[in-house]
């Protein structure tokens, strides 16, 4: 039987990497076999807090979780879904200063992998559909990222279907997320079992390309 911590990680993974405590409790009730102890919710909460360096209860036994909206917000995420994206912003320079003041701000992009996204990454052997890059990790596995071309959730409400997903290297993923590049169907490496629908490419080019305000 799996341990509590294994099940909490699995539960958050099933919830696409982040969720409120109440959703996590609900998911864990599906995952954990009966009987559920009376202190079920408290055990899960303790597992999360003791495995999060964001919490004072952190025990340094593995920093698996982060507090999505700050402590007390009750929303927790899997730390390995986070991708650190430092952004340099040139602040207004007061007169009389020679050196430009530079503020470093860190933002996080949350990488959500649906089951479908995972399957497509395998189908493409983790090769970027734009440049062919295939990143090999130390453990012999390969790394790629799946991007929903019309993004999931508000305000885009793109669907989680294969026709709306493209497999990318991290560089091209950032470029698409931030609208830095346009998509051209003829330049995307296709796979016989995976066709991207033109309507989502059009959406990217019309609504996202050059329109993401990242600051
Ligand atoms: Zn690429």
Sequence-ordered SSE layout with sheet pairings:
Blueprint: H1 4-14, E1 18-20, H2 21-31, H3 40-50, E2 65-67, E3 75-78, E4 82-90, E5 102-110, H4 115-123, E6 135-136, E7 142-143, E8 145-148, E9 165-168, H5 170-177, H6 198-208
Antiparallel strand pairs: 1-3, 2-3, 4-5, 6-7, 8-9
The structure holds zinc ion.
Note down, in words, how this protein is organized.
- The chain is an alpha+beta fold and 215 residues long.
- The protein has 2 domains: 4-81, Arc Repressor Mutant, subunit A (Orthogonal Bundle), CATH 1.10.10; 113-208, no CATH class.
- It is built from 6 helices and 9 strands; from the N terminus they run αβααββββαββββαα.
- It has helices at 4-14, 21-31, 40-50, 115-123, 170-177, 198-208; strands at residues 18-20, 65-67, 75-78, 82-90, 102-110, 135-136, 142-143, 145-148, 165-168.
- It has a 3-stranded antiparallel β-sheet with strand order 1-3-2. A two-stranded antiparallel sheet has the order 4-5.
- The longest helix is centred in the first third of the chain and has 11 residues, at 4-14.
- 24% of the residues are buried.
- The model is unreliable at 85-93 and 99-106 (pLDDT under 50).
């Amino acid at each position: 039987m799996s341990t509590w911590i294994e099940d909490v990680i699995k539960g958050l993974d099933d919830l696409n990497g982040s969720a409120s405590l109440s959703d996590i409790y609900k998911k864990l009730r599906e995952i954990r076999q009966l009987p559920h102890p009376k202190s079920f919710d408290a055990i899960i909460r303790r597992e999360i807090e003791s495995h999060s360096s964001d919490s004072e209860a952190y025990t340094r036994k593995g920093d698996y979780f982060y507090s999505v909206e700050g402590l007390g917000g009750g929303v927790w995420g899997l730390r390995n879904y986070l991708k650190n994206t430092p952004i340099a912003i040139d602040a207004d320079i007061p007169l009389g200063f020679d050196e430009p003041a530079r503020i470093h701000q860190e933002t996080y992009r949350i990488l959500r992998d649906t089951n479908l996204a995972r399957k497509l990454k395998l189908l493409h052997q983790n090769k970027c559909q734009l440049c062919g890059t295939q990143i090999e990790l130390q453990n012999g596995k390969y790394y790629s990222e799946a991007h929903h071309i019309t993004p999931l959730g508000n305000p885009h409400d793109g669907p989680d279907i294969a026709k709306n997903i493209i497999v990318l290297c991290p560089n091209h993923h950032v470029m698409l997320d931030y609208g830095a590049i346009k998509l051209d169907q003829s330049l995307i490496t296709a796979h016989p079992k995976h066709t991207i629908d033109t309507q989502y490419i059009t959406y990217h080019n019309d609504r996202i390309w050059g329109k993401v305000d990242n600051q």
